[in-house]
């Protein structure tokens, strides 16, 4: 995505993920991207201006990484993982969302679940800093209540720790926020079910957008991972229910003009189908 003179994207295996329905509002721009369990991802941004900026990364609402970009130096900055030590890092990876029926978590805020957010800020670099002085000290990968997972099956997590070169850090002072990029990630089947991503090419009498091939959503049959199938079927059910309500309304009152389809959105609501 590009906005206000800056650009950012998410890549997997060196290839940028396809971005769907990019929408800008003020200084924020957002889009949808497909996610797949086990995929390692990297967040990139470009600094083509004359300012020294920081790219601060948040995964599911948690601070996860930050990089400084100086003008007239390397323009593309890569955020590859969570810095776990002076010479170690845990790569970013899409993982299965773990749920629980523990009611103590029922009221826990999950508004940012399913989002990768990058905030570009103008900064002043004050001095070098040690690893121990960093504000980002840990990353929680806890469970969420099964009734508040927003019909998604994935989360942005951390992979196994790897050894890197010596990590360097600087202490900065923020002048202002410039632009915010939000990547909302979902399984590709969920994006198709909500008409965000194009449907698969199909044959037969039924319309393509009424057919969902959920076989592609299982990463491994041995893992017994049905969460993605459930999320897709929930989205498909909501779509069909909306169509049925519109048909009934038109049938009861032929003078009523059909309204635009109220497709099930995935952005912030709590879904409880129990």
Can you tell me about this structure?
By secondary structure, the chain is mainly beta. It has two domains: 2-187, no CATH class; 189-252, no CATH class. Helices cover 12% and strands 40% of the residues. It has two helices and 17 strands. The chain has helices at 188-193, 227-252; strands at residues 2-3, 6-12, 15-16, 20-25, 28-35, 41-46, 53-59, 62-69, 76-79, 81-85, 88-96, 99-100, 115-129, 144-145, 154-158, 162-163, 169-187. The strands form four sheets. Strands 4-5-17-13-7-8 form a six-stranded mixed β-sheet. The chain is globular and about 65 Å long. The two termini are 37 Å apart.
Assembly of the depicted chains: single chain
Q: Which runs of at least 5 residues are low in confidence (pLDDT < 50)?
A: 207-224, 256-265, 267-274
End-to-end CA span:
37 Å
Largest sheet: 6 strands, mixed
List the total number of helices.
2
Shape: globular
Cα gyration radius (Å): 21 Å
Order of the strands making up the biggest sheet: 4-5-17-13-7-8
**What count of structural domains?**
2
Number of strands: 17
Strand content: 35-45%
InterPro entries: DUF7918
Protein name: DUF7918 domain-containing protein
Pfam family, one: DUF7918
Please supply descriptive tags for the structure shown above.
globular; five-stranded antiparallel sheet; disordered C terminus; mainly beta; 274 residues; DUF7918 domain-containing protein; DUF7918; 2 domains
Task: Produce the secondary structure layout.
Blueprint: E1 2-3, E2 6-12, E3 15-16, E4 20-25, E5 28-35, E6 41-46, E7 53-59, E8 62-69, E9 76-79, E10 81-85, E11 88-96, E12 99-100, E13 115-129, E14 144-145, E15 154-158, E16 162-163, E17 169-187, H1 188-193, H2 227-252
Protein name: DUF7918 domain-containing protein
Biased composition (Basic and acidic residues): 251-266
Pfam family, one: DUF7918
């Amino acid at each position: 995505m590009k906005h206000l003179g800056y650009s950012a994207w998410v890549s997997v295996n060196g290839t940028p993920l396809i971005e769907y329905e990019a929408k800008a509002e003020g200084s924020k721009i957002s889009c949808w991207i497909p996610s797949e369990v086990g995929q390692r991802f990297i967040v990139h941004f470009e600094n083509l201006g004359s300012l020294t900026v920081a790219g601060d990364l948040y995964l599911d609402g948690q601070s996860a990484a930050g990089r400084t970009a100086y003008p007239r130096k390397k323009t593309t900055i890569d955020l590859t993982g969570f810095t776990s030590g002076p010479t170690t890092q845990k790569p970013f990876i899409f993982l299965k969302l773990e749920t629980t029926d523990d009611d103590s978590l029922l009221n826990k805020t999950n508004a940012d679940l399913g989002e990768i957010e990058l905030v570009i800020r103008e900064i002043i670099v004050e001095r070098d800093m040690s690893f121990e002085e960093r504000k980002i000290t840990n990353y929680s990968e806890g469970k969420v209540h099964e009734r508040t997972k927003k019909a998604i099956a994935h989360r942005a997590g951390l992979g196994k720790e790897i050894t890197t070169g010596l990590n360097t850090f600087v202490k900065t002072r923020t002048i202002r926020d410039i632009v915010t990029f939000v990547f909302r990630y979902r399984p590709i089947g969920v994006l198709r079910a909500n008409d965000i991503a194009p449907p698969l090419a199909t044959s037969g009498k039924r319309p393509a957008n009424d057919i969902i091939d959920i076989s592609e959503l299982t990463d491994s049959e041995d893992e017994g991972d049905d969460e993605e199938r459930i999320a897709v079927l929930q989205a498909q059910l909501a779509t069909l229910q909306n169509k049925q309500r519109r048909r009934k309304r038109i049938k009861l009152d032929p003078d009523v003009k059909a309204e635009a389809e109220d497709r099930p959105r995935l952005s912030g609501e709590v879904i409880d189908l129990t």
